[in-house]
From TrEMBL:
It comes from Nitratireductor thuwali. Transmembrane segments: none annotated. Residues 1-39 form the signal peptide. This is D-alanyl-D-alanine carboxypeptidase DacA. Keywords: Carboxypeptidase, Cell shape, Cell wall biogenesis/degradation, Hydrolase, Peptidoglycan synthesis, Protease, Signal. The keyword Disulfide bond does not apply. GO terms for molecular function: serine-type D-Ala-D-Ala carboxypeptidase activity. It is an enzyme of class 3 (hydrolase). Its EC number is 3.4.16.4. The gene is dacA.
């Protein structure tokens, strides 16, 4: 069975590349079904769960209690705290959040608010839901908690109150921290709690884009508007976690919350989520809603009929993250911004996707260099010279061998098709940048 599972997952990316993004779901459904039963064997980072949001019944689970890294799913809890403050009238949607120097210095993805400037609470909500802005998450943490560290304590305490017994927060954004951990089951709890406790604000999760400083900022959630009934909630990625997604689905008087963690790529994660929705939404109850998660102050977790505990031992180990060397939330805010950060402070987190996270699909190559640092530097220079052309591109390096030596390709990915990649190259060549397009 292990061989079949590995083969099934290995074929998903190839199948998806040959199909349109979501018509591919039907093509790979059989492979996903075969793979899902043994996903943990095929991918050690994988975890998944589908919960009936009306009854709390678990419709599907795989490694749902294994420790995982939440990445930007963390911002679901950050938003929970914002909604709680709004509901209790401690703040309003027009309250101003000043962005500190500490917040403004966070790495992408970010909104790019200068230190000392402010945004409204509603702008912050939109930035967290769509852009998954790390600078805004830190600003919110300082605004509500006084400091990042105190906010982390508050959110961990809130997690316990919601029955998320295996979740610990150390920051408000989800960037790498070996002590920040959760489980797929806990993320399902949080997804349901957001819907139950704050229905008046839940529509924010359906936001597909918003405008800030004259820029239109699109959501990272590719399933919105493409899979019937999906109305949120959040994506996430760091190298240690893989590609994560929590989806809320409501249609035909049925409601589910589904969690996929540890996807190898955003595309295969989305395809797997779409398949889980297709398979398990019809099995959800059409009856009346039940209150699944109790609210109010508590010294112990107060939980009603929410997801029952699994009848299996909970692993005590966590994924190995030493060293943590990369982060990203689907795409950087801009290539220029990403690489400016890398060159200026040589942070422990590497903002360039390396060969181990190779970007698939159509890519463009602008150089081959003898060292990775030179390749990164050239990517930064190219991104700076052609910011408009490469604003939505994903920079990365890739190794190859020639005559016994290792070289580094400097590439940009994220192009929709051949003509898109060729068009970008044609424009770059007008700027005297050598370029060619290739399908990875």
């Amino acid at each position: 069975m292990g061989v079949v599972v590995r083969q099934a997952f290995a074929g998903i990316a190839r199948l998806v590349r040959n199909c349109s993004r979501f018509s591919a779901t039907a093509v790979v459904a059989t492979a996903l079904l075969a793979a899902s039963a043994g996903a943990a064997d095929a991918n050690a980072k994988y975890a998944g769960i589908v919960v009936d949001a009306k009854t709390g019944a678990v419709l599907y689970e795989d490694s749902a209690d294994a420790y995982r890294y939440p990445a930007s799913l963390t911002k679901m809890m950050t938003l929970y705290m914002v909604f709680e403050a709004l509901a209790s009238n401690r703040i309003s949607k027009n309250s101003r959040i000043t962005v500190s120097r500490n917040a403004a210095a966070e790495p992408p993805t970010k909104l790019g608010v200068p230190a000392g400037k402010s945004i409204t609470v509603e702008q912050a909500i939109h930035a967290l839901v769509t852009r998954s802005a790390n600078d805004v998450a830190t600003a919110v943490a300082e605004f509500l908690g006084g400091s990042e560290s105190n906010f982390a304590k508050l959110t961990t305490a809130k997690a316990r109150q919601l029955g998320m017994s295996k979740t610990t927060f150390r920051n408000a954004h989800g960037l790498p921290n070996s002590e920040q951990k959760t489980t797929a089951r806990d993320m399902a709890r949080l997804g349901i709690a957001l819907r139950e406790h704050f229905p008046q604000y839940y529509d924010y999760f359906s936001t597909r884009s918003f405008t800030y400083a004259g820029r239109r900022i699109n959501s990272h959630n590719n399933l919105l508007g493409r899979v019937k009934g999906v109305d949120g909630i959040k994506t996430g990625y760091i190298r240690a976690s893989g590609f994560n997604l929590v989806s809320s689905v409501s249609t035909g008087n049925r409601q589910i919350v589904a969690v996929v963690m540890g996807g190898r790529t955003a595309r295969t994660r989305d395809a797997h989520m779409a398949d889980l929705i297709k398979r398990y939404l019809p099995k959800a109850s059409t009856g009346s809603d039940r209150n699944l998660i109790a609210r109010g102050p508590a010294t112990q977790p107060v939980v009603a009929a929410m997801v029952p505990p699994a009848n299996v031992p909970v692993p005590s180990d966590r994924p190995d993250v030493a060293p943590v060397t990369a982060y990203a939330e689907e795409r950087p805010a801009s290539a220029k911004e990403t690489f400016a950060k890398a060159i200026s402070d040589k942070a422990d987190i590497d903002p360039v996707r390396t060969a181990s996270t190779k970007v698939s699909g159509w890519v463009i190559q602008v150089a081959s260099m003898p060292t990775e640092d030179e390749a990164r530097r050239y990517l930064a220079e190219t991104a700076s010279e052609a910011e408009t052309i490469l604003a939505d591109a994903t920079p990365f390096t890739e190794t190859f061998e020639m005559k016994g030596r290792t070289y580094y390709r400097a590439r940009f990915g994220g192009f929709t098709d051949k003509s898109d990649a060729w068009g970008a190259c044609a424009t770059l060549k007008k700027k005297n940048v050598a370029c060619y397009a290739v399908q990875n």
